Amino acid sequence: MKTGLNRIYAISLVLFVFAVGTVVEAGGLSTQLGEAVIENLQIGQTYNLRQLANLRLIVTNTSDFSVDLKMDVLYPDSSELKKGSEVIPDTSWVKLSQNLFQMAPNENASSDIIVSIPEDDNYLGKKYQVTIWSHTLGGSGGGMFLAYGLKTRIIFTTDTVKAAKSEAITSSDASVSFTLKPEEIFLDNIELGKIYDVEKKKGLVLKITNPGEHERTFRLQSLTVGNSVATLTKGYQDAPDASYLKFSDSTFVLAPKGTKTVKMYLNFPAKNEYSGKKYMFVIHAVAIDEKVTTGVYSRLYVSIK
Questions:
Q1: Residue 230 lies in a domain
Q2: Which residue range forms the structural domain that includes residue 148?
Q3: pLDDT on residue 17
Q4: What is the pLDDT of residues 13-31, one digit of tens each?
Q5: Buried b (16+ CB within 10 A) or exposed e, 266-301
């Protein structure tokens, strides 16, 4: 059984933008928050994700006219469930600090996401999914009669052990505001049995930026899709071994406003079973030594000769 101290530091949050590029878009709307995964929340607690990890739902009106926007909390369809999640038992568990907005062109709508979990042992050790649908209201602004919207997926797990009230973390100075670039990397015609230096071959390096006011420690790791909360992209297989992708630095400290560049090296063994295949790796940058562990993903796609 975990100790109380372990539970205090158990919460982790991963921000994962799942659309191609840096934003999720629909019509004249965009958002950076495609998916958020929060692990090891406590039953009987309420979490404001802004207070927990400086995470809010921000939607931008990319149209050249004003719109009325509404954010709705919805049950996901069974076809939308990811990584073994269940549909959230009740959408009332998730609330928004504001859900109606009048937005001028290029204006942002921002709302806190608040998750409350009833104090019921039946909810221990669960994984739940809920959808937030941000959409325009038909007939609003600019003579628009067609409504359009986009979805944000929130997945959270509950701890398997109930902690004392005094041990539960509901706020911290952690933040998912750091960035990992590029979000997607494509490597073609990789030769088996040879070390592929991504910087030399493609001119690409990873860049991790800490935009905050405090020094932070980061860990960079390669993951298979199966060992992450990412979704496998159609047309690709999961990486057979995450260790085939290595980095010049895996743990480092970033000063406030600092940026770190990291080289990538790919080395597939000379096995015929890999020939002609296409694989996906997940690159995970995570802030460590904090009460709430926060992380972001990039995806690396490999095509073998």
A1: yes
A2: 4-167
A3: 36
A4: 555 433 222 345 566 898 8
A5: bebeeeeebeeeebbbbbbbbbeebebbbbbbbbbb
